[in-house]
Amino acid sequence: VSLSIAWTASIVPLVCEWLRLGGLDFQAQSRLGWVFLPWLALTGLPRTRRRASPWLAMSLAAPMLVAAGLQDHLAGRPGVLHTAGVGCALLLLLDRAAHDACGGTRRDAYGLAWTVLVPGAVMLHVALTWGAGPGREASSRVVSFLASASPLGWSFARMGAVAASPFAPLAACLLLLVIARGAGREALGP
Amino acid sequence: MAVCALGLIASGPLSAHGSAGQRLRWARIEVDGPLASVRLDAMPAGVVELAGPLTEGEHRVLEVPVPVPSSSTNTGARQPETRVVGGSGRARFVSWSESESATTFAGAVSWPAVPGSSGAVPLPVLLLLLAAFLVGLALRRRPAACALLALMSSGVVTLLMINAEASPPSLRLLELRAAGGGEWHVIDAARDACRASLERPFELVLQPANVPLRVSMPMDLDARASARFEARGATLFVRRPFAPGPHALTRSMNRWGRLDATWVRTADGVWTARGPWELGRPLPEPIEEPLDGGLPPGHLNPALPQGVEILIGRLAPQAFRGPGNGPRQAWVRITSF
Questions:
Q1: Is B166 at the interface with chain A, CB within 8 A?
Q2: What pLDDT does residue B9 have?
Q3: Preceding amide of B65 cis, omega within 30
Q4: Out of B123, B143, B232, closest to residue A76 by CB
Q5: Mind telling me how many Å the CA of A114 is from chain B's nearest CA?
Q6: What does the pLDDT read at residue B213?
Q7: CA-CA to B226 of 20 to 30 Å: which in A14, A75, A121, B286?
Q8: Any CB–CB contact under 8 A between B232 and chain A?
């Protein structure tokens, strides 16, 4: 279900652009960033059942990522290879982490870490920024850093072709993988 | 020494202070072999790539179109930096060309929009993405098959998109402003890239105006030489004057060729559809209840002058379509018809 939702959400901008729906202007934005956003949001979602392959999300997303990346490249948008490389690495890490954490007795630890590092920090940062009103900085440095370390924060930045360091989100995904491996080992027992 | 100056048409409706949209300025370049190619860097306005090769002892003096910012055609354009690729030859910028260094045409023009120029993913690709996802879901318990499917569909997506890119949307508009002395212009509009003859005078305008422009052309120039102009994400308009000769369109007689569809706007702004206009026949009467409401395609009538009569017609494939090999879609637009 999560893969279907991710696929549907990621193709929406491409379809809207093809239909030329009024008011939706994606010309200035990276389509690749748009496509990555829902996949990165839902691929690492804690699961109750293991999939047959830990790379299923990548296999299903690949054709659309290629289409969006080519669109960006042909339109002359900068940083396509950077976005594609980092985005695929994040996607693979998240898919693997969710796969490894599945079925363990301590998978709650992975769920908590994923909630904080992927959607939580970004949501908190946005809420604090919006709540503070225009021109005021209410979000703390820690929250801002966590939001920039979230794969969603990185993807959102790349949508607008904003320079965003890939190291923090990669480190966050590696941390999730480590936690997931620990949870998975717990499930296997001594 | 071969001097390849392409100022073949020195006359024409040129204006020293014409429209500020012209993105080219002619430069005189001196090139000595041996070399494979020469690159002129005029960034951020763009680059020129001159394809060789030239052998040892060969010498050329070339006049080449160099990209300039849209507002600095006459003054302020940066001198391009020359770089030789593949050889020990040399290339040198000599000067800006004194003749027609800033070819622009008098009067504003209502540039047509190129249909299908949104840059959207083509429909076949969207359908392929849907099919690949559904089949991939069905194969989710077979990881190897799923990965193979992803690879194959990614390859097909790439081929489809590159193929769609190879023939970017384009159109030709033959425009006459009867009130301004009856000058004909041919406007070739294309998305992202186009190939155009270097026969002067001509004007190259981009929308958006200052997208970096890449010009690719051979060093062996002759009167029929052409160049490829590429500006990703922009629409390119090449405008040049032409004489239609005996071909003419008046209300009483079509001496041009068959028009598949015709629309006329009255001075008070009311459009009427006239349907096909056959060669040798007078302008047809308005169609009583046209399917399209009597309006011409919107991409051909943006911001047209008010208070004058206008004719828009779509040329039949076999009709006279103006000079050279134009795009498949060709239209006629006559102001003060």
A1: no
A2: 31
A3: no
A4: B232
A5: 24
A6: 92
A7: A75
A8: yes
Q: How far is A79 from chain B (nearest CA, A)?
A: 15
- Is the Cβ–Cβ distance between B208 and B153 less than 8 Å? no
The answer for residues whose C-beta is within 8 angstroms of residue A10's C-beta and 6 or more apart is: A34, A35, A36, A37, A38, A39, A61, A64
Compute CA distances B284 → B247, B251, B272, B276, whole Å: 18, 9, 11, 8
The encoded tokens of residue A62 equal 């690949």
Report how many Cβ contacts below 8 Å link chain A to chain B. Answer: 94
Nearest-angstrom CA–CA distance, B192 and A75: 8
Question: CA-CA distance, A84 to A166, in Å (whole number)?
Answer: 11
CB A107 within 8 Å of CB A183 = yes
- For helices A2-19 and A56-74, the axis angle rounded to 10 degrees is 20
pLDDT value for A27: 55
Candidate from B130, B150, B158 with C-beta closest to A70:
B158
Split chain A (190 residues) into runs of 10 and give each run's mean pLDDT.
85 78 60 88 83 81 90 76 91 88 76 88 83 65 82 82 78 88 57
- A27 vs B119: CB contact, 8 Å cut-off? yes
**In whole angstroms, what is the distance from residue B284 CA to residue B294 CA?**
14
Q: Can you tell me the distance from the alpha carbon of A23 to that of A66, in angstroms, rounded to the nearest whole number?
A: 26
In contact, A86 and A151? CB cutoff 8 Å? no
Question: Is B157 in contact with A67 (Cβ distance < 8 A)?
Answer: yes
Distance CA A10, CA A28 (A): 17
Q: Residue B172 in contact with residue B330, Cβ under 8 Å?
A: yes
